[in-house]
Amino acid sequence: MSEETGSTKTPGPDGPGPSPGTVTPGPRPEEIRFFGTTWVDHTGHYGLRRAAVCAGALVAAAAGCFVLRFAYEGLSVADVGSFVNVLVVVMFAVCSALAFTRTLSGFSERPDPDKQASLRGFMAIGFVGVLLAYALRCLTEAPGEKLRRKEYEEASEQYERRATRRTGNPSRKSSAKKKRKA
Questions:
Q1: For the segment 160-178, what is each residue's pLDDT rounded down to a tens digit?
Q2: What's the pTM?
Q3: Which partner for 137 in 50, 73, 90, 143 could form a disulfide, CB atoms 3.0-4.6 Å apart?
Q4: Residues near 60 by Cβ (< 8 Å), separated by ≥ 6?
Q5: Sign of the CA dihedral with 32 first, then 34, 37, and 38 last
Q6: Structural contact between residues 61 and 142, judged by C-beta atoms closer than 8 angstroms
Q7: Rounded Cα–Cα distance for residues 115 and 119 (Å)
Q8: Spatial distance between the Cα atoms of 138 and 47, rounded to a whole number of angstroms
């Protein structure tokens, strides 16, 4: 969620935005990769983007499995032994399963940045799980949309409460106080 208010951003390829030079008060929605801010009102071919991201993630996961198959065959050709072959298969399966669950949970709550950085290599090994989690989430919504929508609505409500408290001209209030004191 962007804390900055009063944007002069021009509309981009991610959908409608303020016209050039206009200032929009209030919080701005956070962009989601591949979706920009189209998740707010589902404009800018939002449904097509979800379908494309889902299909792309599934194709990338299939390609990744194909590459892993070649790696396994390379180990078999190298005759490293059945223990190493089983160990490699189990390692990729466990890392993919854990990366899948971590990625899905990351769409519903903000992950700790330090913990996320320490698991970067682990998530790279389990890339197939990450891709499958993206594909699964795209069937219902943009990945992370529910979390960002909740944060955006809370920020909008807070902004509205603050804006309604500040109605009126503050200089009139101070001059009225001075008149009462005299």
A1: 888 887 666 666 665 555 6
A2: 0.73
A3: 143
A4: 131
A5: negative
A6: no
A7: 6
A8: 10
